[in-house]
Amino acid sequence: MHFDLKHTDSGSKARAGEIHTDHGVIETPIFMPVGTAGTVKGVHQHELKSEINADIILGNTYHLFLRPGLEVLEEAGGLHKFMNWDLPILTDSGGYQVYSLSGSRKIQEEGVKFQSHINGSYHFFTPERAIDIQRTIGADIIMAFDECTPYPCEYNYAKRSMHMTHRWLKRCFEQMERTTPKYGYEQVLFPIVQGSVYKDLRKESAETIASHNAFGNAIGGLSVGEPAEELYEMTDLVCAVLPTDKPRYLMGVGTPENLLECIAMGIDMFDCVMPSRNARHGMLFTSEGIINIKNLKWEKDFSPLDPNGTSAVDHLYSKAYLRHLIKSNENLGIQIATIHNLAFYLDLVKQARKHILADTFVSWKNQMIPKLNHRL
Amino acid sequence: MHFDLKHTDSGSKARAGEIHTDHGVIETPIFMPVGTAGTVKGVHQHELKSEINADIILGNTYHLFLRPGLEVLEEAGGLHKFMNWDLPILTDSGGYQVYSLSGSRKIQEEGVKFQSHINGSYHFFTPERAIDIQRTIGADIIMAFDECTPYPCEYNYAKRSMHMTHRWLKRCFEQMERTTPKYGYEQVLFPIVQGSVYKDLRKESAETIASHNAFGNAIGGLSVGEPAEELYEMTDLVCAVLPTDKPRYLMGVGTPENLLECIAMGIDMFDCVMPSRNARHGMLFTSEGIINIKNLKWEKDFSPLDPNGTSAVDHLYSKAYLRHLIKSNENLGIQIATIHNLAFYLDLVKQARKHILADTFVSWKNQMIPKLNHRL
C-alpha cells in the first residue's frame, strides 16, 4: 500500500491524493459511508458502487465482533468476502463504541471490560485484542485502540487518558509486528491523536503519533459535542504537526460544511453517520440546501428529489413521493433518502478534489457553504 | 383492454393467457406483488422490473386513501405517476382492509363506516365511493366493493352478506357507467364471488357475478383461515361457473403449492402478502425448499442464497450473510429476502405458464410440490 500526494491547493492546505490498497485506489479527499454491522443500512453493495460512488466503506469492530462474530468472519475469509464488497474497508478499533456504553464498561491500563448491548455477555478488549480482531475482520486500514474522551473533559483526565492512549498505541504496533494479515492482502494501522480540546495536549499527542511514522494518521475525540470553532482549531493545530506525505483521517466528522472546512486544513479522509442517520429521519442534504422532507410544503411537490443529484433516485422519485414514504414509515423511503444523502456526500468530496486539482478550491468552498447550510 | 386466452393445458384446466392493458401486457398465470401504500415494502420500482420481473403490482385503496390521500394522488396524475411505475396496477376496493379493523367499523346496506388506524378519523365507504376513489388512484384493474366474510362464518350470515355484496356490485357497475377514467387510460372493474365455504352460496354467487359479463372475475373470501381442502373445493366449483374467456383472479392466495393447485383449476391471477411478509421474518421460498434463515444451520453456510435463483441477490449474497442481517434487524436483510421471495413467486408462475403452453403442466406440478413444501 502507498499514498501519493498529487497536489496541494495554492490557496489553502487542501490536498488531492491517492491511497493505493490491495482492494483498489481511494481518491482523496474521501468520505467513507458507515457500514456498522457489515452493511450500510438499507443500501445494496452494488448501489454503493453504482449510485453512491463509494471508494471505501467503514465497519465497526465492536458490532462485528458481537455479530456475526469472529468465527463466522474468519470462515468466510474476512469481511470483504462475507459481505461481497471488493473495494477497500476501514475498521475502527471498537474503542469508541465501547465507551458509548457508559454504564457497562470499565477502563483500566490493561484494557476495557464491557457488556454486550445485545445479550449482556462480558468481554475484554485490549490493544492486542483489538489488533487480533481487526486481523480477523480483515479491513485494509485498521485503527489503533484508543480512549475517545467525552466533551467536556476535565484537563487532567484528558491528559492521563491521552498518555494511556499513547502507551496503548505502542502495544498496538507491537501486536501488528507479531501478527500477519490472514487473507493475503496488506493491512495498515492508523494511530489516533487525542487530547480533547486542549492545545498543548493535542500538540503533544500529534507529535507522539507522528513519531511512529505510520502509513496514515487519524484525529479522534472530536465531533463529540464541542463547538465547531474548537473542532476547527484542534484540526488545524494537529494538521500542522502531522506529516504532509501521509493521509490524515478526521474521525466521525461531520456536516457538509465541516467537511469542506477541514479539507481546507489538510484532512484527507472522513466518516460520519450523519448522512445515513439523518436520511432515516427524512433530512436530506441537496444541491439547493437542506430539506426536511416531512414538512407539509413538500406534500404536493412532484419535482425530482434533487434535480442536480448524481444518483438515479434523485431523478426517479419526487419529493412528494419520498415524503409519503417517510411519513408512512416505509423502508423504501429510508433506502431512497440514504442513497441520496450518501451520494451527495461523495459527490461533494469529488467536487472538492476537482477544485483542489484546479487550484479553485477556496472560492468554490466559499460559494458552496451558504448553499449547504440553507434550509429549504 | 382485452384478454387473449392462448392455451388450455391438455391435462388440467390450467390456462395461459395475456391481459392487454394501456400500461402493457400481463402474461397469465400471474402473481401480483402487494404494494400496499404505493410501495412494495423495501423494493425499488426498478428492482420490481429487473430483479422480480413483476408484470403488475397491487395497491390497497384503504391505505392510499388515508395516506397520501386523494388530493395528492390526483395532483400527481394518479398512482402510476406518483410512484413512477409505468406497468399495470390493480387496486382492491378497500373493503378487505376495513373489515380487518374489526373493532372500529360498522357495516350497513348503504356502506361501511370506519376509523382510520393512523389517527382515528371517521370515514364512510360506499360502493359508489369505492369506485370514485379507485378512479382517482387510477389503477388499470379496479375491484368491486364487497364484504369479505371471515372464517368460520355462519351460513345465514354468509348468505345475507353475499346478497348485499351482489346489490353493492350493481351499484359499483352503475357508478362505473356514470364516471370516466381521469388520466386518459382505460380502467376495468372486476366483480367478486363470495359465499364463504358453502357450495350452494358459492354457485349462486358465481352465477350472479358471471351474469355481469365483466372484463374479468375475482374470487374473494378465501385464504381467510379455512383448510386448504375448502379453498380448493370452492375455487374449483367457482371456476366451473365463471366464463372461460375472462381472466379469473383468486384474491389473497397463497403458498407456492396453493398457486400451482389453483392454476390447475383455471385461476389466472393471484396476490398475497406471504412472500414479502415472510421475507421480513427470514422465511425464504427457494428452489430446494423452505429456509428459515434464522436457524443456526445457516450460520456458516457461505453458499449463494439460492443457486438456481433468478434474481441477482440470489448470487450476490450468501445464506450466512443474509442470516446475519436478519438476526441483526438490518433493513438490507429484509430487502434481499423480499426480492428473493417475490422473484421466486414470479419465476414459479412463469415456469407454470411455460409448462401449460407445452402441455406438461400436471407432471411438472406434481414433481414441484414436494420440493416446494420441503423444509431445509
If you had to describe this structure to a student in words, what would you say it looks like?
The structure is a homodimer of 376-residue chains. Chain A is an alpha/beta fold and 376 residues long. Helices cover 43% and strands 17% of the residues of chain A. In chain A, the strands form 5 sheets. Chain A has a 5-stranded parallel β-sheet with strand order 4-15-14-13-12. In chain A, a hairpin with a 6-residue loop joins strand 1 and strand 2. In chain A, helix 8 runs parallel beside helix 9 and helix 10 packs parallel to helix 14. The mean pLDDT of chain A is 96.
Distinctive features:
homodimer; 376 residues; five-stranded parallel β-sheet; four-stranded parallel β-sheet; 15 helices; 17% strand
